[in-house]
Amino acid sequence: MAAQSQDLSQGVSQGVAVLALHYQNDVLHPEGKIRVGMSADSPVRGAVIAAAQALLQGARQREWPIVHVRIAFRPDYADLIQNAPIFRNVAAIGAVMDGAWGSAFYEPLGPDTARANEFVVRHRRVNAFYGTELEELLRIVNARRLVVAGVATHSVVESTVRHAVDMGYEVTVAADACASAQMVEHEASLRSMGLIAQIARGEAVFS
C-alpha cells in the first residue's frame, strides 16, 4: 500500500503536468462541426476518447496537475484573425463559438472542478501558449515535464509541443490520445515530434 501511494505521488515531486488540448464537443462529439474528419461511428474516434479518458484518470490518480485547453471565439468572430485556411474555415462553419455547446468540453473529458490542480485555458491561435496564461500556470504548479495530448496531432498538439520544448520543458506526447483527420497526417506529425519529444503509447505515458 505504501509503495502504491509513493508511486501515485511521484508526479508531484517530478513536476509533471498534463496538457489536454481541444477535447471539445465540436471536435469529438458525433454532432460536432469539426470532428477532424472522424465520422460519428469511426473506431479511431472511440479509441482516442478511451485513451484520453485513461490519460486523465491516470493523471488524477498520480495527483498530476491538468491544464485543459479550449479554443473559442466570440459569436461574431471579431476576435478571430482569419489569416490562415484553418481559421477561415472555423468562421465559415460557425464552430467553437464561446458560450455555445460546440466550444464546451466533451463531457467525458472535461475538467474535474472538485480538484484544485485542474485548470482551464482559452486560446485563439494554434499554439496553446500564444496569448494565454498557460506558461504562468505551469510555473505555479512547478512543472518541468509535460505530457501533451489532444486533437489535432499535426495542429495544436505539434505547435504546442514545439513551443514547450523551446521553452525548456521535457515533453512526452500521449500518442494514443491524439488524432488527425487522416492517419497519415497523425503518424507524420508523431515522427516529426519524435526528434524533440518522447512519443509514448499506453501505460508508457506514466513512466
TrEMBL record:
Keywords: Hydrolase
Signal peptide limits: none
Domain of life: Bacteria
Enzyme Commission code: 3.-.-.-
Record domain Isochorismatase-like: where: 17-194
GO molecular function, one term: hydrolase activity
Record-given protein name: Isochorismatase family cysteine hydrolase
Lineage of the species this protein comes from: Bacteria, Pseudomonadati, Pseudomonadota, Betaproteobacteria, Burkholderiales
